[in-house]
Specification:
The protein is of the alpha/beta class and 359 residues long. The protein has 14 helices and 13 strands. Helix 8 runs parallel beside helix 9.
Length: 359
């Protein structure tokens, strides 16, 4: 059994324990459950996968959360499908239909007398939608279950016709924010510039958020694609190869940091205020020492980016950063945000942006 399989088994057992605990508490208090994603109130967790299936959460590695198929259905039809109705009925009965539900931030406990109403009250999520243009990635991260993901996706990349269909749904429902990433590396798609141009042409006011590991954002064409977004996260979990590869297996720091700097130069040379460029630094117990954190901040300043954000994680369990939770250094670092701590590096209003949610 490799590390990925071992971590997956631990994750599933943890979810099962949490599921049983939450169901027991709901039963004792005569409560039910309610899912904001299935109600269309989420800005993030309804995800269109690379094969055009639609999932109720962004962590649907095994396909258990699939609700329908955007190739043949509209978003309205998918959210009113028998599968979606079944999930809502189970929640209304005080049961968690998926193991993923046990750790999903969209899950809420509600009084039992309100449960039936929420089965039939739902809408298309106009606040935001996640779109996975590709499930391909050049890394093999410890907490990413890529072998399982491959078996649950029929295809690994959207075609331009499928992107046009997605763009049409975004336009038709006046969806406010697009999270253009999920379980793959967006820049692994060779036609990402065309993809984003199609979406932007149909939705000029749409806010586009993109997350990348930075390894493949290495050409001017891809940098032009990046300039079509509003906010881009570079996920870089360390400042040297040894640290990065504890989790982001296959990463090369000089490569991704060089691509980060070059995107800043490209943006500033184009005199564009967008995208806001943020270094997302996920904290583990091997990259959370004060000197490592301060090194990342110094490198962020040198690159000219807008922000370095530090994100504590609970996965894998053996990697939890206890320093983040216990050290006074982190309590004083930057400003608190929903994701952890943010250190703002540029105060120019033209280069700032609202923080967006990302798991």
């Amino acid at each position: 059994m490799d590390d990925h399989q071992r971590n997956w088994n631990i994750l599933q057992r943890t979810r099962l324990l949490r599921k049983r605990t939450r169901e027991l508490r709901a039963r004792l208090s005569r409560d039910a459950f309610y899912c904001k994603a299935l109600a269309g109130e989420s800005n993030y967790n309804i995800a269109v996968n690379a094969d055009m299936t639609v999932s109720c959460n962004c962590r649907d590695y095994d396909g258990s959360g699939q609700l329908g198929d955007l190739s043949t259905q509209t978003l309205e039809e998918i959210l009113s499908s028998p599968r979606s109705m079944h999930l809502r009925r189970e929640l209304a009965a005080g049961r968690l239909p998926l193991l993923t539900c046990a750790s999903c931030p969209e899950l809420t406990r509600i009084p039992g007398e309100d449960a039936d109403r929420h089965v039939h009250e739902f809408q298309v999520p106009t606040l935001g939608l996640m779109v996975e243009n590709t499930s391909t990635c050049c890394y093999r991260c410890v907490g990413c279950y890529r072998d399982l993901l491959t078996t649950s996706r029929r295809r690994s990349r959207m075609s331009l016709d499928e992107i046009r269909r997605v763009a049409g749904e975004l336009e038709r429902h006046a969806i406010q924010t697009l999270f253009f990433f999920n379980q793959g590396e967006p820049f692994a798609a060779p036609d990402i510039l065309e993809q984003l141009q199609i979406i932007r042409d149909r939705n000029p006011d749409l806010r586009i958020i993109l997350s990348t590991n930075g390894a493949l954002l290495d050409t001017d064409e891809k940098r032009r694609a990046a300039l079509l977004t509003d906010h881009i996260y570079f996920s870089i979990d360390g400042t040297d190869d040894k640290t990065l590869n504890r989790y982001q297996v296959g990463a090369r720091f000089e490569r991704v940091y060089g691509n980060l700097r070059e995107l800043v130069r490209f943006r500033d040379q184009a005199r564009s205020g967008m995208p806001r460029i943020e270094w997302k630094y996920v904290l583990f117990n091997w990259n959370d020492r004060r000197a490592q954190v301060e090194r990342a901040i110094d490198l962020g300043k040198a690159a000219g980016i807008d922000c370095v954000s530090f994100w504590p994680t609970r996965a894998p369990i053996h990697g939890i950063s206890w320093r983040y939770h216990l050290s006074p250094f982190f309590r004083r670092l930057g400003t608190k945000s929903w994701s952890g701590r943010n250190v703002e590096l540029r105060r120019d209003p033209a280069l700032s942006g609202d923080e967006e949610r990302e798991e």
